[in-house]
Design a protein that fits this description.
Layout lengths: L2 H4 L4 H20 L3 H12 L10 H22 L2 H6 L1
Length: about 90
């Protein structure tokens, strides 16, 4: 097996995070909101923009990681008393 198969590529996550870090403050300053900034950043660097990402599996893995982190943050903000009342 080649060493390329075992290496972890951090280029894709770094580019995605960099695009988000750049786009979100710009869109917030314009007054359009951070979610729209994330969406536009994804469109620009995705397959329909500059086509930095052609492999949809790489995007899916990073999206799943983002969802897990988002659920983790939601768990931090939930209070057990609120959950028990449900």
């Amino acid at each position: 097996m080649s060493s390329e198969a075992h290496s972890i590529s951090l280029v894709a996550p770094v580019v995605l995070l960099a695009a988000a870090v750049i786009a979100v403050p710009i869109f917030k300053r314009i007054g359009l909101g951070s979610v729209l900034g994330y969406l536009i950043a994804g469109l620009i660097i995705g397959p329909f923009g500059f086509a930095f990402f052609q492999d949809s599996a790489a995007i899916l893995h990073i999206a799943e990681l983002g969802i897990v982190m988002y659920l983790f943050l939601i768990g931090f903000e939930m209070q057990p008393s609120h959950l028990w009342s449900i």
